[in-house]
Design brief:
alpha/beta; TIM Barrel; globular
Length: 327
């Protein structure tokens, strides 16, 4: 009887994939890919983090600027050790200069910016392993506002993906990545859906979501304590309008609650179970952001912030539900 039910479930999953044209999210038979930003996208930080977590990550979150060399010695090591990537390509130079989205959107063959995109295409293909690639993650945040408007971002994103496709990049899944906090913003320049390039240009909807229970540098609490499910609600409402798209948790994390030493561990354990619940089936991958927030005082997201938190994360990392790969 159990095998019969499993066969029926598998057949239904295959039918759903055929109808949507998109891969579905995680199941026990097709688990989620589990990744991380280990504090720095370096060999040593990755090795340390994986030793703490008790497992190798399926992929590493890497943040590159427009003129960075890719792959670096660190990402070359990741390739040789079988790590896929979630690669963010920021429209900012190493000098700190923001590039214009309008200029990228208008770039044509023979232009320097077009040549830059061709270079990225060649380098992504050469990496070989499947990876998520996002063009300028979090365009909806203050960190990106110097590059242009939502309309200019959309044009730039579309041109970037068009060039990648023209150069026959086949190992990249195009991830549109925004901040969960900006799905309720009243400011047009910060409202994440205003930056959506359209279903034809996006493979997966990726989200960065944090329980920012942290003190500002003045000492006040920046935000109330919130579960991951609560933080994701506005994004999930948006995702419901795009039912054919798999979802990826590109960044997530929480700080400790000084008044409750087990609150962070409980938050991680709740997140572990949340992705298994009805309504979250479309999530195909999840990656933890293992560092401190530079925007707040003593805001530590690292898995080693307490013994209880580390134990909770190791339990999630060991869960077979999170034993998948990027494909």
């Amino acid at each position: 009887m159990t095998r019969t039910l499993a066969a029926v479930a598998a057949a239904l999953a295959c039918l759903a994939t055929a109808l949507t044209g998109q891969s579905e999210g995680a199941t026990l038979g097709d688990p989620m890919a589990f990744g991380a930003f280990p504090g720095a996208a370096t060999t040593s930080s990755t090795q340390t983090f994986e030793s703490q977590a008790g497992r190798s990550m399926a992929y590493i979150r890497v943040y590159d600027r427009w003129d960075d060399t890719f792959p670096s010695s660190n990402t070359t090591w990741m390739k040789t050790t079988g790590h896929s990537l979630f690669l963010s390509i920021k429209t900012r130079l190493k000098s700190g200069t923001n590039l214009s989205w309008a200029a990228i959107g208008a770039a044509q063959r023979g232009d320097p910016l077009y040549a830059d995109m061709q270079r990225w295409a060649t380098q992504i293909k050469a990496y070989g392993l499947p990876m998520y690639v996002t063009f300028n993650h979090e365009p909806d945040t203050a960190n990106s506002q110097g590059s242009g408007t939502p309309a200019e971002y959309i044009a730039a994103y579309r041109n970037f993906v068009t060039v990648m496709q023209a150069e026959n990049v086949t190992n990249a899944t195009w991830a549109w990545t925004t901040a969960a906090r900006n799905y309720g913003s009243g400011k047009p320049a910060r409202y994440a859906p205003n930056y959506y390039p359209g279903d034809a240009w996006v493979d997966v909807l990726a989200i960065d979501a944090y329980n920012m229970y942290c003190r500002t540098k003045s000492g006040a609490w920046a935000n109330p304590w919130r579960s991951l499910a609560t933080i994701l609600t506005p994004f999930m409402n948006f995702a419901a309008q795009h039912p054919g798209k798999p979802l990826v948790m590109a960044e997530f994390g929480t700080a400790e609650d000084p008044a409750n030493p087990r609150a962070k561990a409980g938050w991680i354990a709740d997140a572990q179970q949340m992705f298994k619940q009805p309504g979250y089936e479309r999530f195909a991958a999840v990656s933890y952001w293992n560092t401190t927030s530079h925007n707040y005082a003593n805001c530590d997201f690292k898995i080693t912030s307490s013994t209880a938190s580390l134990d909770a994360f190791k339990a999630m990392a060991a869960d077979p539900f999170y034993a998948g790969a990027v494909d």
